[in-house]
Amino acid sequence: MYVCGWSITSAVVHEFAERLPGIEETDWRVSWLPGRLLTREQALAAIELAELLFDPASRNDPGTPATVAAAAELLGIRPIDAAAALSARHPNR
Predict the structure, then answer these.
(1) What is the chain's pLDDT, residue by residue, as a tens digit (93 residues)?
(2) Most buried pick, 22, 38, 41, 43, via CB within 10 A?
């Protein structure tokens, strides 16, 4: 994950978060959660969640399910809903 003051991008999956210009610095938009304004913390969680769900190496990590659940909870969604939304955006992965 690459993080700066205005954007968060992933090296694992083609998803991103960006801080909206001219709006409070806490207002972020995430590519796979259209129509929602998020805090920076939530934007980080959203990109981390996308990476965890798409990185084959994370499947072997016993801590992944708890991390996925915590990130999804911070976003106010169920992990299965996050997986479905991301899967719809990346059908060939």
Answers:
(1) 999 888 999 988 999 999 988 766 679 999 999 999 999 999 999 999 999 998 888 888 899 999 999 999 999 999 999 999 998 988 876
(2) 43
